[in-house]
Structure formats: structure tokens, C-alpha cells
């Protein structure tokens, strides 16, 4: 596995592979890799000739008071895991490499960004769109892989690709979970022992909400209230939001119908967890 830290090194690698006619799969990450990230790399390995993984904690998507500085980092460990998953090139730039000077262009996401996590994190998805755009240009991927745990992020990136005609296929990969159902996340290391024991109720609450919808109770308000009540009773955390929206448009629903996402976020003492279920009802 080749590890590169500068844009010229990366572009040289990409140009060599493109000239050889090889298809490139991109796996963008913020590092502190877990099985979820590795599942993206393994899928990319099966579907492409070359796999490029990026590790970059993007400051543009962190707001004031968020955990940019304390976001977990362990590059030596990440390099070993990336290599084990079949990554061919690992791009690990410093902030100064990606943003050497203030940009004269800013990106603003006008759709799919003001709900769920985006409602209380203004500018977050502008930062996501900016860094993903840069990575698409730098790596020239044929396919790019994103985890569906961050389903709003995937919806925004899919919209970015469609709106700006990027020649890349974006692929959502199902969430990898612990045995008790908790979604794998780099932020799980912040949970106390008691919080970790209660955190799986986040997924259980969502399952309850989906089952309610599938049993024919079509009122979004009723589905959200039942999900919220379960979280309040079992999760031992502050409930940030519970939402039922169309997917990937992320628009409010008059009734539970079509392709939807039931999503929730909860806050523990040092960790904010998100999860969702994407499902269909006719």
C-alpha cells in the first residue's frame, strides 16, 4: 500500500492508474478506522481495480464547540487496517495541504441540509460538500463509497453529484453494527460503560418505529412520538431529534408512504450518536 501526504504525490498516482486504464474506487474517511470503514474498502476492492482511501479530519464540517481537536486519531493503526482491507493508496493530508489559503469560492448546500443533523449544525454540509468536491477532483474516481449510517450525508453527496454532473457513481453501504445492534462509530470510544450498555436502544427505538409504520399506523407524528418515548425511557440520553422523512429528498411526509428514513440522534455526556433505518411502504 502506498501512503501519500501531498496533492502532487496523489495526482501522480492517479494519473498513472488512469493511463493504465484502471478503474478507481474512492473511500473517503476521517480515520480512526473501524469495521464500517473497512466494509467500504472491501466493497470497493471487489468492484474496482484500484482503491484509494483518504483520511482527513475536515475542519470545515466542524462547528464552534464541536470535537475537531479531540476527534480520535491513530494513523499508525489506520495504516495497518487500510492495508489489511486491500487499499492500494492511502491519502493522509494535513489541513494545510488541503486548505493552503482561504478559498475565494464557498459552497452552499441548499437542499437536504436543513433537517436532521444539519438543522443544528449550520454550515456542516457546506464543509462536507467542499471537501468531497476536492477529493473527487484529486482522485478522479469511477465509484465512491459512503456508509449509510450517515444517511443525510449520503443524500447530500448524491445530490451534489447529480447537481454538478460529477462523473462518479456514489454507492451507499449498509451500516456495520456491534453484536448488540449499536452502529459502529469512531465516537463510541467516548461512551462510559453505563452509556455503552444503553446505547443499543437507539437502534431498538428505530426498529419499533418502523414496525409501527409497517403495521399500518401511517401518521408520521404517531411513529415519531412512539420512537421518542422509547428513547426517553430506555436510552439514558438526551434526545436530539427523531424524524420521519422522504428519502433521499428529506422532505416532511403527510403519511408514511414510499421510500423513507426514520432517523434519530441522542446525546450522552461526551458523545452524540446518530442512527437510522431506510425503508419502503406502499
From TrEMBL:
One of its GO terms (biological process) is pantothenate biosynthetic process. Keywords: ATP-binding, Cytoplasm, Ligase, Nucleotide-binding, Pantothenate biosynthesis. Pathway: Cofactor biosynthesis; (R)-pantothenate biosynthesis; (R)-pantothenate from (R)-pantoate and beta-alanine: step 1/1. Its EC number is 6.3.2.1. GO terms for cellular component: cytosol. It is found in: Cytoplasm. The reaction proceeds by a bi uni uni bi ping pong mechanism. Belongs to the pantothenate synthetase family. This is Pantothenate synthetase. It comes from Bacillus aerolatus. The gene is panC.
Amino acid at each position: 500500500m502506498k501512503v501519500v501526504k501531498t496533492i502532487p504525490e496523489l495526482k501522480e498516482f492517479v494519473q498513472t492508474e488512469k493511463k493504465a486504464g484502471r478503474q478507481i474506487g474512492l473511500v473517503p474517511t476521517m480515520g480512526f478506522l473501524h469495521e464500517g470503514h473497512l466494509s467500504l474498502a472491501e466493497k470497493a476492492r471487489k468492484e474496482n481495480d484500484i482503491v484509494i482511501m483518504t483520511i482527513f479530519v475536515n475542519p470545515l464540517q466542524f462547528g464552534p464547540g464541536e470535537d475537531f481537536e479531540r476527534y480520535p486519531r491513530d494513523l499508525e493503526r489506520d495504516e495497518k487496517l487500510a492495508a489489511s482491507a486491500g487499499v492500494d493508496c492511502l491519502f493522509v493530508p494535513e489541513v494545510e495541504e488541503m486548505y493552503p489559503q482561504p478559498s475565494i469560492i464557498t459552497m452552499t448546500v441548499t437542499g437536504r441540509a436543513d433537517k436532521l443533523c444539519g438543522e443544528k449544525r449550520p454550515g456542516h454540509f457546506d464543509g462536507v460538500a467542499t471537501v468531497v468536491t476536492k477529493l473527487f477532483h484529486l482522485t478522479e474516481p469511477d465509484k465512491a463509497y459512503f456508509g449509510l449510517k450517515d444517511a443525510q450525508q449520503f443524500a447530500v453527496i448524491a445530490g451534489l453529484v447529480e447537481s454538478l454532473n460529477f462523473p462518479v457513481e456514489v454507492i451507499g453501504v449498509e451500516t456495520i453494527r456491534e453484536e448488540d445492534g449499536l452502529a459502529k462509530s469512531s465516537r463510541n470510544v467516548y461512551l462510559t460503560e453505563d452509556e455503552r450498555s444503553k446505547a443499543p436502544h437507539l437502534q431498538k427505538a428505530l426498529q419499533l418505529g418502523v414496525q409501527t409504520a409497517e403495521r399500518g399506523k401511517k401518521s408520521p407524528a404517531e411513529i415519531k412520538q412512539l420512537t421518542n418515548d422509547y428513547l426517553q425511557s430506555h436510552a439514558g440520553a438526551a434526545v436530539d431529534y427523531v424524524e420521519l422523512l422522504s428519502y433521499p429528498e428529506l422532505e416532511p411526509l403527510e403519511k408514511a408512504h414510499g421510500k423513507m428514513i426514520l432517523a434519530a440522534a441522542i446525546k450522552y455526556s461526551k458523545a452524540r450518536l446518530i442512527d437510522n433505518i431506510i425503508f419502503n411502504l406502499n
